[in-house]
Amino acid sequence: MRIILAGASGFVGRGLIPLLLNHRHEVTAAVRTIMDDLDSRVKQSLVQGLSAEQDWRPLLNGQEVVIHLAARVHVMSDESPDPLAEYRKVNVEGTLALARQAVDAGVKRFIFISSVKVNGEGTALGAPYSANAQAAPSDPYGVSKMEAEQGLLALATETGMEVVIIRPVLVYGPGVQANVLSMMRYLHKGVPLPFGAIHNRRSLVALDNLVDLIATCIAHPAAANQTFLVSDGEDLSTTMLLRRMGAALGKPARLIPVPSWILETGAKIMGKQALAQRLCGSLQVDISKTRELLGWTPPVTVDEALNKTAKYFLDSQSK
Q1: Mean of per-residue pLDDT scores for the chain
Q2: Are 114 and 149 in contact (CB under 8 A)?
Q3: Are 23 and 3 in contact (CB under 8 A)?
Q4: CB of 266 within 8 A of CB of 195?
Q5: Residue 164 in contact with residue 226, Cβ under 8 Å?
Q6: CB 281, CB 122: distance < 8 Å
Q7: By CB neighbour count within 10 A (0-12 exposed, 13-18 middle, 19+ buried), where does 40 fall?
Q8: What average pLDDT does range 208-233 have in this prediction?
Q9: Strands in the chain per DSSP E
Q10: DSSP code at position 134
Q11: Given this model, what pLDDT does residue 140 score?
């Protein structure tokens, strides 16, 4: 397949490219600056960014599939005067401009990497989100992803271009940043953490599992015009995740059994409710539709993915 990859320089894009090349796809990466470390088999084409004004036509001619990873990503403390308007400019208007030009160029399939935030911020324990559940985003980022999904599905109905929507949960793997990287740093240093009595459940997805699903959706006939949730298929409490991450690092987690209600109360006082939700709350997804409709199974286990992530982290510390 001849594939345009938007968002090639990001965490998921860098993980996806080797798999696409192994599957013998012809990949063109839409990039804002040339990536010196990119495989020479990938053609790079410069774009100014994801916006309603961007002209994608020179890249799209002759292409069969667009994989759209680019976005204005979620940030914990957005200082924009109107965050939703800023998210819409990129994630909605920019996405739909790309999709409309893809239709005009004869692209057959458009794969959109959305977010579980379209479903919401959290679930009751043992009551996972399903792919067909009513959307209930609660922040501007989630709203913008939902509106992009709606626009893409409407475009698919109007034009016949096939759309595939994938909503990942938290993605981790070699090179991961943000909270997962912070956890690994604390564990590696042997810092005692007050998370020894968290009984939540959270779905995660290893980078290898996410990119495998994306690759599956490139040509699978049953994927057309469907929405899929994706995870590793094993949900973990924060306590269990830290213990297994510590084992992968060779540094047993030093966890203090502080009740979650105390952590949540402290976080509320400090204005860190969102962080408390990530650490103490549950967010589970049901991937049975993904498994059954596509015949897909996550190829990598949680422990395999944690070991790979830990090895990359430890190697980076020794340089």
Answers
A1: 94
A2: yes
A3: no
A4: no
A5: yes
A6: yes
A7: exposed
A8: 98
A9: 2-6, 26-31, 43-46, 65-68, 109-113, 162-168, 170-172, 204-206, 226-230
A10: P
A11: 94
Indicate the pTM of the whole model. 0.94
Count of CB atoms within 10 A of residue 264's CB? 17
Q: How many CB atoms lie within 10 A of CB 154?
A: 12
Angle at 288 between CA 176 and CA 19, to 5 degrees: 40
Q: How far apart are CA 43 and CA 31, in angstroms?
A: 10
Structure letter (DSSP) for residue 92? I
Q: Give tens-digit pLDDT for 143-161.
A: 999 999 999 999 999 999 9
CB neighbourhood size of 227 (10 A): 22
- What's the CA gap between 50 and 116, in Å, rounded? 21
As a whole number, mean pLDDT of residues 211-229 equals 98
129 catalytic residue (yes or no): no
Where is pLDDT greater, at 119 or 73? 119
Residue 44 token pair: 């790079």
Given 87, 141, 172, 186, which residue is catalytic? 141
Nearest alpha-carbon partner for 129 in 295, 292, 287, 291 = 287
At the fourth CATH level, the homologous superfamily of domain 2-174+204-232+285-300 is NAD(P)-binding Rossmann-like Domain (3.40.50.720)
Instruction: pLDDT band for 76, please (50, 70, 90 cuts).
Output: low
